[in-house]
Amino acid sequence: DFLFFWGAVFLITTTLVALLKKENEELTPTKEETKGITDTYRLLFSIIKMPAVLTFCLLILTAKVGFSAADAVTGLKLVEEGVPKEHLALLAVPMVPLQIILPLIISKYTAGPQPLNTFYKAMPFRLLLGLEFAFLVWWTPTVKHEEGFPVYYYAVVLLSYALHQITLYSMYVAIMAFNAKVSDPLIGGTYMTLLNTVSNLGGNWPSTVALWLVDPLTVKECAGAQEQTCGSTVAAEV
């Protein structure tokens, strides 16, 4: 129902844009820096070779390593400890207004000459929330009872997620603001796409590695089989 509703909204709004939006034909087209795909990739490589851009790419490719495990694994571990998936999904609903409001608030602080200051200031708090998430996963089994989980537990989870969203959006909006500020207007689309792609990659590869390392780094105990280590998936099944 959810997907059907938004699919219908997208179809209607896109059709209205196609029918009602008129192009301004009086504007003279701007000179394009690139003529085709080959020229675009040559331009991308020339941008990447600049020392400042190379340093920045290395920064954003590695900046999210510290909280990749907390971001990628916390939800899975809470489900593993017995928290119903549908309850965690419902907790995402109150986050929607927060996600809409946060960029509006944060953009006031990233509009100045040094937008990355917000990024740097938010990073320690996001790292601390990783420790808080680890505590949350450890605490979850202790509050579980036969009927499920108490209301105060979900309140703590909701508050933790809300604080996480604040730090996440502070870093996200700051990076986007910086990318927009440093991109050359003549090749703004190509320039920004490159920096945003690297930024997205910097968030995805640490999460992939974190998920891959979950099993090797998880300590398991075998009940009733003292000789089994349960270190691997096969041993755990045995």
Question: How does this model look, in words?
Answer:
The chain has a single domain, classed as Growth Hormone, Chain: A (Up-down Bundle), CATH 1.20.1250. It has 238 residues and is mainly α. 73% of the residues lie in helices and 0% in strands. The model has no long low-confidence stretch (mean pLDDT 87). It has helices at residues 2-20, 37-48, 51-62, 68-80, 85-91, 95-110, 116-143, 151-182, 188-217, 233-237. The chain crosses the membrane at residues 6-22, 43-67, 87-106, 118-139, 151-175.
Compact summary:
The protein has 238 residues and is mainly α. The protein has helices at residues 2-20, 37-48, 51-62, 68-80, 85-91, 95-110, 116-143, 151-182, 188-217, 233-237.
